[in-house]
Design a protein that fits this description.
The chain has two helices and four strands. By secondary structure, the protein is α+β, with helices and mostly antiparallel strands. The protein has a single domain, classed as Double Stranded RNA Binding Domain (2-Layer Sandwich). β3 and β4 form a beta hairpin.
């Protein structure tokens, strides 16, 4: 029997998610240009809640500047892939 993923909302969009395979993620849900987006802040316990909140704050600052955090992350990955 497959179990659904469990979600627990922390505050201001930061939440924890437990998958059916028992992997635990920190995630941040936000809106950009009228669309809902979701980015991963890391795996628990490798990333403690304090680090996940710090990463969320960086994402919120980017949103305040009008930059999509997921789009920025994708662009940075493409740049690093080109360097290899």
């Amino acid at each position: 029997m497959a179990y659904p993923a469990l979600r627990r909302r922390r505050r201001e969009g930061c939440s924890g998610r437990i998958t059916p395979s028992h992997r635990r993620y920190w995630r941040y849900r936000y809106r950009f240009d009228g669309r809902e987006n979701l980015i991963s802040l890391g795996l628990y316990p490798e990333v403690p809640i304090e680090s996940a909140r710090a990463r969320q704050q960086v994402a919120r600052q980017l949103l305040a500047l009008g930059v999509n955090p997921a789009g920025r992350r994708k662009a940075l990955r493409q740049i690093s892939a080109q360097r290899l």
